[in-house]
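Write out the bound-state structure for coenzyme A.
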Amino acid sequence: MNINIKKCTLEDLRKLQEISYETFNETFKHQNSPENMNAYLERAFNLKQLERELSNISSLFFFVYFNNEVAGYLKVNTNDAQSEKMGDESLEIERIYIWSKFQKHGLGKYLLNKAMEIAMKDNKRKIWLGVWEKNENAIAFYKKMGFVQTGAHSFYMGDEEQIDFIMIKTLKF
Ligand SMILES: CC(C)(COP(=O)(O)OP(=O)(O)OC[C@H]1O[C@@H](n2cnc3c(N)ncnc32)[C@H](O)[C@@H]1OP(=O)(O)O)[C@@H](O)C(=O)NCCC(=O)NCCS
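---
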């Protein structure tokens, strides 16, 4: 078993679009209407949008490789790139997605540890994320990794308002 990680650059734009689109689709298509899914996928993962995000110096994307195949990706935000005003001492995990066929091999934990490493190097006090209240698999994973729920916020999937739990892991007291 061979796990590697690579920071994404603009050269990875198309590969990033494919994995973002496909992993989001396979995760959520069974619990959402095709109309809402398509609206979200088109808005969130069009090339212009992803290019803007890749160019933001306060966001970082990483691919994780399992035996030299791209198996998932991570997006972390700091400062103003965070999707909520959580302050300069926080780091957001905005996206962490492993292709279903590579799940449960330790890759999610590997990416989460990468996010922790970045946060600690940057003297952040906490890591936070938003997770859909119906995403039981991810919530169980985050709890296992030491996150606790502290609140909730709204998230729009197409025209449907959904609730995301806010979960936090404190790194320093
Ligand atoms: C959530 C996700 C990132 C977890 O990644 P993963 O590679 O499957 O998880 P790992 O194999 O690294 O698991 C790490 C630990 O969490 C535990 N874990 C993982 N999923 C779990 C679950 N559903 N319930 C309980 N524990 C779980 C594992 O048993 C493991 O425990 P260990 O350290 O004691 O061995 C992955 O399932 C995924 O990409 N899901 C679809 C996309 C998604 O929902 N992303 C989050 C959006 S907010």
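---
The longest strand covers residues 160-170.
The CA atoms of residues 148 and 167 lie 5 Å apart.
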